Amino acid sequence: MNPFSRIPLLTALALSCLSSPNFAVEPDAALIHQNGQFTPPLLIVPSGKKVRLRIENLETESMELESETLAVEIVIPPQHTTIIHIGPLAPGRYDYFNDDNPQEKGVIVAQ
Amino acid sequence: MSPLLSKKVGITLYWSAILLAESPTLWADDDFIVYSPQVTYGQSEAELRGFHSQDARPGLNGLGAFESSIAHTFTDWWKVEFYTSTYEQTPGLGTQYSGQELENTFQLTETGQYPVDVGLLASYAQVPIPGLPNSLEIGPLLQTRLGYTEHILNIICQKDVGAGALPGCHMREAYSFRYRLTTPFSPGFEAYNRPFDRARQLGPAFYGEFKVGHGGKELEYSAALLYGTNYGAPDRTMVLRLEYEFF
Predict the structure, then answer these.
(1) A80 chain-B contacts, CB cut-off 8 A
(2) Are the C-beta atoms of residues B53 and B61 closer than 8 Å to each other?
(3) For B205, which of A35, B187, B215, B237 is 20 to 30 Å away at the CA?
(4) What number does CATH give the domain A25-110?
(5) Residue B213 CA to chain centroid, in angstroms?
(6) What is the pLDDT averaged over residues B131-150?
């Protein structure tokens, strides 16, 4: 197989992901990390849909948001906002925490 | 022997060793790493990595390389990594400085926005040995997480440039699988395919990270033992990577 032929195929695959209409509009949600806690401590999001989650870290140190049930592990720089996408989530409760300071915890409820 | 003559003798010996080896291959260190498309704004890194191969064939036994690099992520989507030094071990010729490299990682999609996170690698490596080509590399980086497992695939095109450049684009693929058991230790495996060298390797790997103090400082390590599955690959290759991340 001509090695050059792989590049257009892979580009097409990548672009097909980007253009998928299923992800054109997603509900928004936001978390704020400040003073050693997450606000809101219990975040409600719609189940069965992808959710665009804004995580705003107002602290002067980075944080690492981690959740095995959400399949998320992401570092948020200090005084920075990072956007990730979670879901679609089945109805239920999903715990997360700051891996840099594990006593800082929160819950996302999908319903 | 004059310095110029000794340099020519060195180059001749170098190429002789390559041509006489049963698998005439330049084993660049980049071949044994699987790049993630995800970058973190404002984060800096210092990295050391290397590999060492064992094989019953003299031309492949003792092949290896090690390199150091520093990196910084300047935006939410662009990381630059500069390989300050790369050393290659060639059977019969010892260890030689083999150049520097500037590498860019572009995160093209937001994390989790699509079933697969997509990024792009683009790099340029400069080889200081006269008569040997420099190289450009470009290719997609793909990553996805399914439950407790993480999968990363790189498909890289390497193109020689300059004196001694071989024609065409040399493709190589790298894949890693990780089962997120615990943060300090996660098992997995890695696979590398180098069709140009007729070399295919795969084997177990493990990964881990440790917090260092406060402020987002972290030490990450990974190691792999790769077994050659066809004639062009060494029997065994041991890979070790250490990375210090900080803000």
Answers:
(1) 41-42
(2) yes
(3) B215
(4) 2.60.40.420
(5) 29
(6) 94
Residue with tokens 């400082």: B217
* Mean confidence (pLDDT) of chain B: 88
* Distance (Å) from the alpha carbon of B78 to chain A's nearest alpha carbon: 14
pLDDT at res. A106 = 97
Contact B112 A84 (CB under 8 A): yes
Residue A25 CA to chain centroid, in angstroms? 15
- Closest chain A residue by Cα to residue B171: A3
Are the CB atoms for B158 and B169 separated by under 8 Å? yes
> For A62, which of B109, B139, B247 is closest by C-beta distance?
B247
| B34-63 mean pLDDT | 96
ipTM: 0.81
Give the residue-averaged pLDDT of B84-94.
90
Q: What distance separates the 2 farthest-apart alpha carbons in chain A?
A: 57
Residue B80 pLDDT greater than 90, yes or no:
yes
Q: How far apart are CA B153 and CA B151, in angstroms?
A: 7
Q: Kindly list the domain boundaries of chain B, sorted by start residue.
A: 3-246
For residue B148, which residues of chain A lie inside 8 Å, CB to CB? 68, 71
> What b/e string do you get for B162-193 counting C-beta neighbours within 10 Å, with b at 16 or more?
eeeeeeebbbbbbbbbbebeebeebebbbbbb
Homologous superfamily, domain B3-246: monomeric porin ompg (2.40.160.40)
Return d(Cα B25, Cα B198) in angstroms, integer: 10
Pairing mode, strands A42-45 and A101-110: parallel
Q: Is A111 exposed, middle or buried (0-12, 13-18, 19+ CB in 10 A)?
A: exposed
Domain boundaries, chain A: 25-110
Q: Would you state the pLDDT for residue B246?
A: 97
Q: What is the pLDDT of residue B13?
A: 42
Residue B10 has pLDDT above 50, yes or no: no
